[in-house]
Write a structure and sequence with these properties.
heterodimer, A: about 500 residues, alpha/beta, Aldehyde Dehydrogenase, Chain A, domain 1, 2 domains, seven-stranded mixed β-sheet, six-stranded mixed β-sheet, about 15% strand, globular, B: Aldehyde Dehydrogenase, Chain A, domain 1, five-stranded parallel β-sheet, three-stranded antiparallel β-sheet, 10 strands
Chain lengths: ~500, ~280
C-alpha cells in the first residue's frame, strides 16, 4: 500500500528551480503565510468508556493491578482508565490461549481464514472510528491513521486470511504446524497496525495469542478485542492484557508460552533474548533502527526531498525504520539543505484530529523528554540545528517541531542512536563506496533508502546495504505481501509476506 | 617407519599453531599412535573471526555458480583423501566419509538455487516492483558435535558457506583429527582462505567467547550441553545473534534430517527491495 505523504504541494516546484535564490514565501503552516488553511477537524465522534478491563477467554474482566490513565497527548486529557494486568491475569490469559489452541489449530484452514476475513471486514467497516481513536490515544495525524494505519491493518488480516488454507504450499518440504501459544508485545507508534501484524499471521497459522499493547496506546487493541467478540472468534484465541513493562515481563517469563514476538527497542529486545535463553521459547524481534537515506547528485531532487521528509517526519518520527540519517552527495549538499529548510517551513504541526495536520503530538511526555535530550546533545556535540518550522503549537500537550541537524559527524550521538522523533541528521559523502561504508557503519540494519535515476547504481547500492528493507527512489512503503524486518541489531525474523509465516510455524 | 603429521589450526587459509602454545593429547586412529593437537584459545578464536570477516564479503559477492563449483571442488578433494579421512575416523569410517562427500555435493548445488526457491516477488498493492532476496549474514560460529566427527562438522559448516557466509568452526573435542585432514582438502580446493576456519579445543572454554563475540552474527551448534545451549542463546543479548542449536541426539548420517532449506534458512538474511514502477 502506497504511503502518500502528500502534504501541501506548494513547494513541489520544478526540480531545476533554485530555491536558494528565490524569495517567495510559500509557507502554508499555521505560522502565517499566503497558503494558510482553515481548521478542518475530523467530525466523527467515538465512544470511549470510563474504564477498560482485560480481554481474556472471549470476555472482558477486571485487571488485578492498579488501573492507569491513558491520555490524549495533544491536550493531556484523560481518555479512559486502563486495567493493569499482573502475573495472575497473565496466567489466566495464557491458560485461555492454551485451552483454545487444540480447537483453533484443529479447524480447517479455510474456516480459520474466514474468521480473519470477518475481522478484516469489521476493521474496514469501523475504520473511521478506529482512526479517530488511534489519533486521540496516540497523537498521530488523522490523515495518517485514516489513510495508513487502519487500511493497512485491515489489509494484513485480509492477506493472512488467505494463507490459512495454503500453509502446506508455503515452505517446500515442510509439514506446517503451529508454534502454539504466542506472547506478543507491541509498541505505541502504530498500535492497531502492529496488533494486526502480530495477530493475523499467528492466527492464520493456527496459533493462539496473548497480546500486550503498549501502556500509552491500549484503546484500539481493546477495540480489536471487541471486534474479535463481534465476529464470533472462538474464546481464548485472542487475549489482550494491558499494562506496562511488568505485564510484558510476566508474559515473556511465563512457562507456558511457546513463542515471544516483540516489536520495540533494541534494549528491551536484548533483555527478552536473555530472559528466554535457557528456555525453548521461540523468538522474533523487530527492534530499533538508524536507517540511512542516501541522495546522489543524479537523483530527482524534489522527489528525494519528499522522500526524506516522509522518511523522517512521518508519524512524528516515531518509526523504527525512520530515515534518520540522510547522506547527501557533496555537490548537492547546499541545494538539498535549502530545499529541506523550505519544505520543513511548510509542514503543519498541530491538532492531530485536523485533516490538514502533517505532524501531530509526541506520544508521551517521556518520549518528548527523550527527544529533547537528543536535541540538547546534538547541539552540545557541535552539530548545527535547523528549526525552520513556524507552526504555533498548542500550549497543552507534547510537541516537538520537525528539525534537522547539519555539521553532523559519524561519531555524534545523534548520528548513532535512535531518537524516535522528528529529528534528522544530515551528512555528506563523495563516492558510492563511501556512502555504503558510512550507511552500514551502525549496529542497526532495518531499512535504507537510495535516490538516484541511475538504474545500475541503485541496484548495486541495494545489494550492498545491510538492511532488511531497501527503498529505492521511495521510502516508508509497507504492504502485507512484503516482508519487513532487520539485519544485525534491528532484530530477527520477518513480518509480512510468505517469509513472515515462518515465525508462526514449526 | 612412517612419519607422523603435526596437526595445527586452520585460519585464513594458513596452518598456524595455536598462539597459546597449548596442546592436547588425542588418539590418532590413522596411525595407531597418540597425537598432539592444538588447544585453541580465545585469541585464536578472535584471529579466526578476523580472517573470516576479511574473506566473507568477497565470498558472498561471488556468484552462486562459482561458490557451487568451489564446494564441488571440495568434494573432489575429499574424495582424494577418503582413505586418510576414513582411517582417522576408525571403524565404519569409509561410510561416513562417503556420506560427508555427498553432503558437500548436496549443499554445493544449493548455491544457485536457494534464491529461486526461497526468494520471491511480492505483489504489493501499488505501482512498485517489490522482491525479496536472500543474502549472506556474515561470520557464522559453528560448533561441531564430538561424534560423528566428520559429517557432524560438515553438516555444521556446509549450509552457512553455501549461502556466502564465512565460518569459524570448532571441531569434535574427542576426535579432532578428521577436521584437520578436512582442512588440508579445503586448502587445496579453491575455497578462498578465511571462508572456513577450523579450531581444535574445548567447548566449555570457547563457548562463552563464541557467544560474546560481536563480529559473529550467527551460531550453528550441535552436540552442546543444555548449559552451553543457554549460553550460546544469550549471545542474542550481545548483538542479536541468530542462534541455531541442533538436537543432541540428531542422526547426522540421515540425509532426510540434515539437508535442505532447514540447514540454510538460519544463515541467510532476507532483503526486500522496493522500486516505483510508475513514470
Amino acid at each position: 500500500m502506497a504511503l502518500e505523504y502528500g502534504m501541501s504541494s506548494a513547494m513541489n516546484t520544478d526540480s531545476r528551480s533554485d530555491h536558494s535564490a528565490g524569495t517567495l514565501d510559500l509557507r502554508g503552516a499555521s505560522g502565517g503565510g499566503i497558503f494558510d488553511y482553515d481548521p478542518a477537524p475530523e467530525s466523527v465522534k467515538v465512544q470511549i468508556a470510563d474504564s477498560y478491563g482485560l480481554f481474556i477467554d472471549g470476555g472482558f474482566s477486571d485487571a488485578s493491578g492498579t488501573a492507569f490513565a491513558t491520555i490524549n497527548p495533544s491536550n493531556e486529557e484523560t481518555l479512559a482508565m486502563i486495567g493493569s494486568a499482573d502475573g495472575s491475569d497473565v496466567d489466566r490469559a495464557v491458560a485461555a490461549a492454551r485451552a483454545a489452541l487444540p480447537g483453533w489449530s484443529g479447524l480447517p484452514g479455510i474456516v480459520r481464514g474466514k474468521y480473519l476475513y470477518r475481522i478484516a471486514r469489521r476493521i474496514q467497516e469501523r475504520a473511521r472510528e478506529l482512526a479517530v481513536l488511534e489519533t486521540m490515544d496516540g497523537g498521530k495525524p488523522i490523515k495518517e491513521s485514516r489513510d495508513v494505519d487502519i487500511p493497512l491493518a485491515a489489509a494484513h488480516f485480509f492477506y493472512h486470511a488467505g494463507w490459512a488454507d495454503k500453509l502446506e504450499y508455503a515452505f517446500p518440504g515442510k509439514k506446517p504446524e503451529p508454534v502454539g501459544v504466542c506472547g506478543q508485545i507491541i509498541p505505541w507508534n502504530f498500535p492497531l497496525l502492529m496488533a494486526a501484524w502480530k495477530i493475523a499471521p499467528a492466527l492464520a497459522c493456527g496459533n493462539t495469542v496473548v497480546l500486550k499493547p503498549a501502556e500509552t496506546t491500549s484503546l484500539t487493541a481493546l477495540r480489536l478485542a471487541e471486534i474479535c467478540q463481534e465476529v464470533g472468534l472462538p474464546k481464548g484465541v485472542v487475549n489482550v492484557v494491558t499494562g506496562a513493562g511488568k505485564t510484558g515481563s510476566a508474559l515473556v517469563n511465563h512457562p507456558d508460552v511457546d513463542k515471544i514476538a516483540f516489536t520495540g527497542s533494541t534494549a528491551v529486545g536484548k533483555i527478552i533474548a536473555k530472559a528466554t535463553a535457557a528456555t525453548n521459547k521461540r523468538l522474533t524481534l523487530e527492534l530499533g533502527g538508524k536507517s540511512p537515506n542516501i541522495i546522489f547528485e543524479d537523483a530527482s531532487i524534489d522527489q528525494a526531498i519528499e522522500g526524506v521528509i516522509g522518511g523522517i517526519y512521518f508519524n512524528q518520527g516515531h518509526v523504527c525504520c525512520a530515515g534518520s540519517r540522510v547522506f547527501v552527495q557533496e555537490s548537492i549538499l547546499d541545494t538539498v539543505t535549502q530545499k529541506l529548510k523550505d519544505r520543513l517551513a511548510s509542514l503543519r504541526v498541530g491538532d492531530p484530529l485536523d485533516k490538514n495536520t502533517d505532524l501531530g503530538a509526541i506520544n508521551s511526555s517521556e518520549q518528548l523528554g527523550t527527544i529533547n535530550k537528543y536535541l540538547d546533545i546534538g547541539g552540545n556535540e557541535g552539530a548545527v540545528r535547523h528549526d525552520p518550522n513556524p507552526s504555533a503549537v498548542p500550549e497543552k500537550g507534547y510537541w516537538c517541531k520537525p528539525c534537522f541537524f547539519t555539521g553532523v559527524q559519524p561519531s555524534h550521538t545523534i548520528a548513532r542512536e535512535e531518537i524516535f522523533g522528528p529529528v534528522l541528521a544530515i551528512m555528506s559523502f563523495r563516492t558510492p563506496d563511501e556512502a555504503i561504508s558510512r550507511a552500514n557503519n551502525t549496529p542497526y540494519g532495518l531499512a535504507a533508502g537510495v535516490w538516484t535515476d541511475k538504474g545500475s547504481k541503485i541496484f548495486d547500492m541495494a545489494s550492498k546495504l545491510d538492511a532488511g528493507v531497501v527503498w529505492l527512489n521511495t521510502y516508508n512503503q509497507f504492504d502485507p505481501t512484503s516482508p519487513f524486518g532487520g539485519y544485525k541489531e534491528s532484530g530477527f525474523g520477518r513480518e509480512g509476506g510468505r517469509h513472515g509465516l515462518a515465525a508462526y510455524l514449526k | 617407519m612412517p612419519i607422523t603429521k603435526t596437526y595445527k589450526l586452520y585460519i585464513g587459509g594458513k596452518f598456524p599453531r595455536t598462539e597459546s602454545g597449548r596442546s592436547t593429547l588425542v588418539e590418532d586412529a590413522s596411525i595407531g599412535l597418540s597425537a598432539h593437537v592444538c588447544h585453541a584459545s580465545r585469541k585464536d578464536l578472535r584471529n579466526a573471526v578476523e580472517a573470516a570477516h576479511a574473506a566473507q564479503s568477497k565470498w558472498a559477492e561471488a556468484s552462486g555458480y562459482l561458490r557451487g563449483q568451489i564446494l564441488y571442488r571440495l568434494a573432489e578433494m575429499m574424495e582424494g583423501k577418503r582413505h586418510e579421512l576414513a582411517a582417522a575416523l576408525g571403524d565404519g569410517g569409509m561410510d561416513e566419509v562417503d556420506a560427508s562427500i555427498d553432503r558437500v555435493v548436496h549443499f554445493a548445488g544449493w548455491t544457485d538455487k536457494y534464491s529461486s526457491v526461497m526468494g520471491g516477488a511480492n505483489p504489493v498493492s501499488g505501482p512498485y516492483h517489490n522482491f525479496t532476496i536472500p543474502g549472506a549474514m556474515g561470520v557464522v560460529g559453528c560448533i561441531a558435535p564430538d561424534s560423528p566427527a566428520l559429517i557432524g562438522l560438515i553438516s555444521m559448516i556446509a549450509g552457512p558457506i553455501a549461502m556466502g557466509n564465512a565460518v569459524v568452526a570448532l571441531a569434535s573435542e574427542t576426535n579432532p583429527i578428521p577436521a584437520m585432514i578436512l582442512a588440508e582438502a579445503m586448502a587445496t580446493s579453491d575455497l578462498p582462505g578465511g571462508v572456513v576456519n577450523l579450531l581444535t579445543g574445548f567447548r566449555d572454554e570457547l563457548v562463552p567467547y563464541y557467544s560474546g563475540h560481536r563480529e559473529i552474527i550467527a551460531i550453528h551448534a550441535g552436540g552442546v550441553s543444555d548449559a552451553q545451549r543457554a549460553e550460546l542463546r544469550e549471545g542474542a543479548a550481545v548483538n542479536m545473534k541468530r542462534v541455531t542449536i541442533r538436537e543432541q541426539d540428531l542422526d547426522y548420517t540421515d540425509d532426510s534430517l540434515c539437508s535442505g532449506p532447514d540447514w540454510l534458512d538460519p544463515f541467510v538474511e532476507f532483503k526486500t527491495i522496493w522500486h516505483p514502477s510508475a513514470v
